[in-house]
Amino acid sequence: MTQPILLPYDGSDLSSVRSVGSDLNRYIEDEEQTALVEQRLAAYEVVSTTDCTPTILTAFTTELPQPGAFNLRKDILECPDDGTLHQLANHLISAILVPLKSRSLTPSVVPSTLFNVILDVEMLSTEIETSNRDQRRLKKKCLERDGNKCQITGYYDRDAVKKLPPSESAGLLKASTQAAHIVPFSCGSFTEFDCVKSSMIWDAIFRYFPELRSQLSFGPESINDPINVITLEFSIHQEFGKFLISLEATDVVNTYRIKTYPDISDIAKMAINSTTVTLQSSAETPAPSPYLLETHAAIARVLHMTAMGETIEKILDERERIGCLANDGSSNLQQLLLVF
């Protein structure tokens, strides 16, 4: 597949596209709507070999949880022309895919004027609160809940093993473990300068993963909540953060199928010795949220289906290499790749 890149928006006025609510109580699966979306995307005229607008929108409508997919199908059908569809795809990449894969700075976001969400963003920017990193306390709490071991490999935390008597520690496989965020910490940590961009990102997340808000009341201030954290061995954490490992829900509550993708490192692959994992809660600490794990798994599938995972990873690596972007969000790299 041709590696996709974002294309520059041509400046068309998209304000005619009205906002769509995400009231879950009124959600109805609409086969006719799905068929119309397929027809609309099939009629889209690509502008270059790197224009992956239909691929991006098809992947999201296929892989989003049903309430979010319903909202997106409505948005697609209300786009009056190919230009708005193109910006919609750009918005999904810059407001969802890139931030959730980002390991540091909050990226720039393609404007969301096509959804008439300016007022929503302004309201969010006044309500949004950043998270504080207290990694040591968070790891301790989640490690105790998770039985002092990586939830995917079963390797025990080496510091925890040191505290055990020899009779109990003998034969235990141990490793360095970390408190791994499901929605990355970077989505909840930002400066006042980044507040509007972060509000746009969270507006998109709430729109296409509405259950995070309606069922969990989850937002940037909740990033360090244990429901958003799982204990993972170091190499597994790296691949989980790159969406090369995900946990897919099964019919059994809190039991997940471990899914890996082709680019996973050999070290991480060899460490996985099971196909499923059952997550636990403790008396004081709830289990990782199935809604958050569903969000992570959906993003992993989209990144794989669209080949955007590798593209974004290269851009993030390059951004880290050159340092930080200019205050206005521009850089030579930005102009070259037409992404941020």
Tell me the strand order in the biggest sheet.
Answer: 5-6-7
Instruction: Compute the CA-based radius of gyration.
Output: 21 Å
H/E element order: HHHHHHEHHEEHHEHEEHEHHH
Number of strands: 7
What fraction of the residues are assigned to beta strands by DSSP?
5-15%
- Cα end-to-end separation: 22 Å
The shape, in one word, is elongated
Report the mean per-residue pLDDT as an integer.
81
Q: Given the structure, what is the number of helices? A: 15
Q: Name the poorly predicted regions.
A: 1-28, 117-128, 325-340
Kindly state the percentage of residues in helix: 40-55%
Structural class: mainly alpha
* Main beta-sheet strand count, sense and barrel state: 3 strands, antiparallel
Protein architecture, described:
This protein has 340 residues and is mostly helical. Helices cover 46% and strands 8% of the residues. The chain has helices spanning 31-42, 53-63, 66-77, 82-101, 118-127, 135-145, 158-162, 166-169, 195-208, 211-214, 234-241, 266-271, 290-306, 308-322, 332-337; strands spanning 156-157, 174-175, 177-181, 229-233, 245-249, 255-260, 276-278. The strands form 3 sheets. A 3-stranded antiparallel sheet has the order 5-6-7. A two-stranded parallel ribbon has the order 1-2. A two-stranded antiparallel sheet has the order 3-4. Helix 1 packs across helix 3 (66-77), helix 4 (82-101) crosses helix 9 and helix 5 crosses helix 9 (195-208). The longest helix is centred in the first third of the chain and has 20 residues, at 82-101.
